[in-house]
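User: Please predict the structure of the protein below. I'd like the answer in structure-token form so I can feed it into my own downstream comparison script.

Assistant: Understood. Taking the following sequence of 202 residues as input:
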Amino acid sequence: MTDFAIAAMPREENGRRPSRRLRRTGMVPAVLYGDNKPATGLSIEARLLRKLLADERAYTHVITLEFPKGKETALIRDIQMHPYKEEVLHMDFMRVHAGETVRLHVPIHFLHENTCVGLKAGGVLHRALNDVEVEAPVDRLPEAIEVDIAQLEKGESLHLSQIKVPAGVTLIPLQHEDDKEVVSIHNPRTGAEAEETPEAAE
């Protein structure tokens, strides 16, 4: 169920001051919750965390948190980043187990941009969505939702209802009848369109 693992240590002290002290030692404060168990404070070595997060798959795959006295399996639920440094300040993990169905935002990857009919004809690509919330068993969570735009022409668009997803995966917006636009090909704006005349503005 998991291809990722990282060492973690229990953390007893909470709050801003203990967290700052922890970061000065090269550790990142985090919390593990869910599965009807008490929330557990933990810390992870920043160096190991950077290596883990460098792989995009880690954001949608089950991760084994290896404690000195046991293991927990979890998904990344939230990451708080430093305002201007590439530095993780805090992380939230949610406990999961085999067979459980979960909801998670996964990225959308657009395929065959180089051969897209509409782009080759001079159209402009508009990515309306970069990610989408899905529901799936933890062992079927996709790394990304792939959208093939090879045959998309100028003036056309694709919506969520037109996207193929892996077996067992549900697109949450469609459950609420929210058929969002995913991608479209626009005609390039001409100078006349870009600069509205005074008469048109009135």
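That's the full token string. The first helix runs from residue 16 to 24.
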